[in-house]
Amino acid sequence: MPPMPSNDGRPRLPWMPMLALAGLLCLSACTTEVVGKSDAYNELYVGNLDGRLAGRGTLELHAVRSRATCSGPWRAFPPTGPDLWDREGVFDLACSDRRRLRGRWVSLNRREAMATTQDQLRHNYTFRVSADPRRAGLHFQDYGRLQADKPPMPKLPATAIAQSPKANAKTSVEGRVVPRKRR
Length: 183
Fold this sequence. Notes:
With 183 residues, the protein is of the alpha+beta class. The chain has a domain at 45-149. It has helices at residues 15-29, 133-147, 160-163, and strands spanning 4-5, 11-12, 31-38, 44-50, 56-63, 69-77, 88-95, 100-107, 112-118, 124-130, 169-171, 177-179. The protein is globular, with a radius of gyration of 20 Å.
């Protein structure tokens, strides 16, 4: 579509193609805040989730006290829809301290979702996903107060991966853990 002339004779770009371009960029660039905590230890997590409108993307978390990082894919089901908040999904994170966090999230309302998971030693974790950074900050403050009197997160032993009954499993699209087939 050629540029439309303005009243002063200069070319003017139509706004619809520009809006479509912004939407396409947002599919890969729009991020959502994530905060979390270990239920038994004093560790807090902050991070973000990208690709919200596309229904799949990358989830990145940073542990505040141990400074471990966790990253991995997430996906929603059904994979398409108006927004993340009408759906459920799964995630699979590998952490720099050798923890593996696989879990499922569910929508709480039009702006937030919640996820729970366990690591190899069956330590429980809770995460909140929020489209509102202010709301995510409030969850982080609440989690900080809850974690204040808990002991520090223990180091993951090298044998923990072999001890895990879920280490040889994958999370299905429905969120169930299913064993992998042996070859």
